[in-house]
Amino acid sequence: MDSRKIIEILRGTIDPNLRQQAEDELTEMKKIIGFTPALLQVVMMGELDMPVRQAGVIYLKNMVAQYWKDAEYDSGEPIPFHIHEQDRAMIRDAIVDAVVHAPDLVRVQLAVCTYQMVKHDFPGRWTTIVDKISIYLQNPDTSLWNGSLLCLYQLVKNFE
């Protein structure tokens, strides 16, 4: 998946003149396997303008909220869209690191993604989240604790 193309489209969502066209392109691209992990990579690019990163993380949050869970359907009906399991595995592998290293404006949206992912995947498909959080909390660099505690909170919040 081409990161430059995603960045260009996300910039278009900010411009009122290009917004509708950019949103239509994103709607088509979301169906491509590899798009969701590429979107997360774009969101985590430190050299990118913050408005573009925010547009990307909000789109990612909305995708996770709507399409993370395996879609239920009756036989004979077309299969509704959901994020492919290959993409979900890649996101599960990277989301804790992303929350830990993201700036605050992005971290908040990634935490919502984490909550949705835990809700549908923990513990069955995603047992490694506890280990990743634990590794960051044992790190002497206290700047990493905020993001890891936020992930831990999302995990615990699902069971309160």
Automatic annotation (TrEMBL):
The answer to whether UniProt assigns keyword Transport to this entry is yes
Q: Which UniProt keywords apply?
A: Cytoplasm, Nucleus, Protein transport, Transport
Which domain of life does the UniProt lineage start with?
Eukaryota
InterPro entries annotated for this entry?
ARM-like, ARM-type_fold, Importin-beta_N
Please list the residue ranges annotated as the Importin N-terminal domain: 22-101
**GO function term, MF aspect, one:** small GTPase binding
Biological process according to GO = protein import into nucleus
Where does it localize? Answer: Cytoplasm; Nucleus
| GO cellular component terms attached to this protein's record | cytosol; nuclear envelope
Q: What is this protein called?
A: Importin-7
